[in-house]
Amino acid sequence: MTKTIYRSIYVVLVAAALIVDLGFFGFRINWPYLNYYTLLSNIACMIFFAALLFGRRDAPRVEGAMVFCITVTGIIYATLLAPDDLAEGHFWKFDNLVLHYVSPLMVIADWVVFSARGRVRAADPLCWLFMPLGYFGYILLRSTFAGDIGDTGSAFPYHFIDPAVQGGWGPMLLGVGGLAVGMAVLGYIIFFVDRLLTLR
Question: What is the pLDDT of residue 27?
């Protein structure tokens, strides 16, 4: 029962934040926002936990992927994006805090407290990399054919993957390579924590 209540709160919170962020209350949906990894990762987690609430069996390996996916969101936001939002006054908005901080922390807590241990395989962290790298490939393709995202003036959703901001394609791709290595390390941290928690 506790697990059901916790996951229900999570789904409601994230759904509310997505509704606010996408502009439903303003009756003008911000469809371009769906090009942001933050929204896509939160939607994936919300759907996963909603599916668990509606009778799908717990899937520890899939939950591991969700933990990885949403933790990437939280870490990248906190380290690369939050300073700009603080300066511009967007940081303390309800939807911003839920999608970048509350959601990652709640997913991690669910994984630690409720998920079955020892199910994550050694190869899983490398498979998880296909989520952010697939997103990056999509953004590269989209930037070539679809132009600017909304009225941002850029075809790239984040400054750290925008060649114009990073000084060209070489520095940008080098930075993305560094992020990929960091994500692989994160994936194996999740794997080893899963193994350690198995020993409790």
Answer: 66
pLDDT of residue 65: 95
User: Which candidate, 32, 64, 26, 31, places its Cα nearest to that of 45?
Assistant: 64
* Sign of the alpha-carbon torsion through 19, 20, 23, 24: positive
**Domains in the chain: how many in total?**
1
Helices (H) and strands (E) in the chain, counts: 10, 0
CB 114 within 8 A of CB 3: yes
Spatial separation of the C-alpha atoms in residues 36 and 58, rounded to whole Å: 28
pLDDT reported for residue 26 = 61
Distance between CA atoms of residues 46 and 13, nearest Å: 9
Q: Which domain holds residue 62?
A: 2-198
pLDDT above 70 for 141: yes
